[in-house]
Amino acid sequence: MRKCPFDLWVYQEIICEVKPDLIVECGAGKGGSALFFAHMLDIIKKGKVISIDVQDFENMAMHKRIQRLKGSSVSSKTIEIVKSEIKGTDTVMVVLDSDHRQEHVEAELELYSDLVSVGSYLIVEDSHMNGHPVNKRFGKGPFEAIESFLLRSNKFVPDKNREKFMMTFNPLGYLKRVN
Ligand SMILES: C[S@@+](CC[C@H](N)C(=O)[O-])C[C@H]1O[C@@H](n2cnc3c(N)ncnc32)[C@H](O)[C@@H]1O
User: Fold this and answer.
1) Which residue among 75, 137, 138, 170 has its CA within the 20 to 30 Å range from the CA of 144?
2) Distance of alpha carbon 125 from alpha carbon 143, whole angstroms
């Protein structure tokens, strides 16, 4: 899993508070983060993870709560499948951790933000890149995508309380849906 332990601590608090029926993860990688989410859902005794990636890896982590979806996070087919898995009463949480270029993250924010339930979270990973404060030469990435998204949307606020450990890979990235 490619996450900061402080962020994992925050994730388990959010999952425990929000009690999602569905966590949609864009960018599965080798599957460690989806497995972590599945184990947190085991603890609250509900929910499943849809974990999306353009590629397969060998020895991917398996768990009965994880549904893998191969394809681009921004393809219409992927979105259609994800939407078909959501029931009207479901509490949905979304994690964006795929292609970190600004255009891609902005496209994901447009496509996935409406799926997030009021009171739940849309978490944009790795906004620390492009000098926020690491990897200064990355170019515009998740942080800039979030800034641009927040100018257009009044449905989400960055929950700075989730940055309480001071070190996070996701500055400005814990977006809480408020309406
Ligand atoms: C940072 S890794 C994911 C790490 C994983 N979430 C974890 O914490 O262990 C990014 C992943 O995004 C995938 N990816 C890149 N572009 C994508 C796209 N358009 N749609 C879905 N996944 C994509 C890559 O194949 C890669 O496995």
Assistant:
1) 75
2) 9
CB 113 within 8 A of CB 122: yes
- Parse the chain into domains and list their residue ranges: 5-177
Question: Both tokens of residue 54?
Answer: 């353009």
The matching CATH number, chosen from 3.40.50.150, 3.40.50.410, 3.40.830.10, 3.40.50.10490, for 5-177 is 3.40.50.150
Q: What are the per-10-residue average pLDDT scores of the chain (179 residues)?
A: 96 98 97 98 98 95 96 98 97 98 98 98 98 97 98 97 97 98
Judge if the beta carbon of residue 73 lies within 6 A of ligand 1: yes
Cβ 14 vs Cβ 164: under 8 Å: no
Predicted TM-score (pTM) of this structure: 0.98
* Distance separating alpha carbons of residues 44 and 65, to the nearest angstrom: 12
